[in-house]
């Protein structure tokens, strides 16, 4: 098993994920997992579906892959 080094002290949190985006660095697995967990809880608490949360402009700006 290889250990992934965190480049920020906030890696593994939603704030760490946003820092990767802001700095233009590749998102580490810990940050991806943290933001997925955060968004899943957020959508559950607000009663929202995933489609309503990410506008097309953000998808295009960050190159997010949507669908299968």
From TrEMBL:
Protein name stated in the entry: Uncharacterized protein
UniProt source species: Arthrobacter liuii
């Amino acid at each position: 098993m290889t250990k992934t080094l965190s480049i920020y002290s906030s890696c593994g949190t939603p704030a760490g994920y946003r820092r990767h985006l802001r700095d233009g660095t590749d998102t580490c697995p810990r940050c991806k997992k943290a933001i997925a967990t955060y968004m899943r809880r957020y959508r559950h608490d607000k009663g929202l579906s995933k489609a309503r949360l990410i506008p097309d402009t953000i998808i295009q700006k960050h190159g997010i892959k949507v669908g299968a």
